UniProtKB/TrEMBL annotation:
Source species: Agrobacterium albertimagni AOL15
GO MF annotations in UniProt: FMN binding; oxidoreductase activity, acting on the CH-NH group of donors, NAD or NADP as acceptor
InterPro entries: Flavin_Rdtase-like_dom, Split_barrel_FMN-bd
PANTHER family in alphabetical order: BLR2425 PROTEIN, FLAVIN REDUCTASE LIKE DOMAIN-CONTAINING PROTEIN
Pfam families per UniProt: Flavin_Reduct (PF01613)
Entry protein name: Flavin reductase like domain-containing protein
Residue ranges of domain Flavin reductase like in the record: 19-172
Amino acid sequence: MFYDTETNAHGMAHDPFKAIVAPRPIGWIGTKGRDGIRNLSPYSFFNAVGDRPKMIMFSSSGRKDSLRNVEETGVFTASFVSRTLMDRMNESSAAVAYETDEFELAGLTPAPGHIVDAPFVGEAVAALECRVTKVLTLPDMDGNDTDSHAVFGQVVGIHIAEEVIRNGRFDLAAADPIMRLGYMDYAGMGPIFELKRPSQRT
Ligand SMILES: Cc1cc2nc3c(=O)[nH]c(=O)nc-3n(C[C@H](O)[C@H](O)[C@H](O)COP(=O)(O)O)c2cc1C
């Protein structure tokens, strides 16, 4: 089948777009407002977008509290979502008032950043501290602003729990991430395998 995205006539109960661009990692974005109120929310429009220097991005569909906070303070954190934290991650996505601290709501420990003044999830096995480098309201193909706002951040500090460092590596199997699919679906990790680049073959 084929459908064009202008009519969006896919004929299915739900738009399959996000099920195709999947799985997506989940960035659990920790921020504080200028007033000091903490915020925590999951974003699956999230990824690493550069490594020299290390850059990550999350994108807000509409103007949400995390976006407001990064605009106010210029910093954020991204915590790693392990399967054990799945329910609390979901809890933290509730549409609640700006004044609500989702760390409290979800029963999580707000750990203070070492470098940036933004909280991360103390229970997470990894977290990135970031300084905002750009907030980009995404233009559409005609150059008009959309209501998607991409926040780019340079990673200035990285936390890793000792228990997931094995044989000198961040052991992803031990960290046990959950990933976002389409619909209301999530997935865990499948088996890990290694694939050498053509230039690395002996
Ligand atoms: C797994 C998951 C991924 C999500 N990804 C996004 C996303 O990429 N962009 C977005 O705008 N909202 C996303 N949401 C919804 C936000 O988490 C939700 O709107 C939240 O209330 C926003 O909080 P805030 O206003 O405190 O930033 C996601 C929710 C879940 C559960």
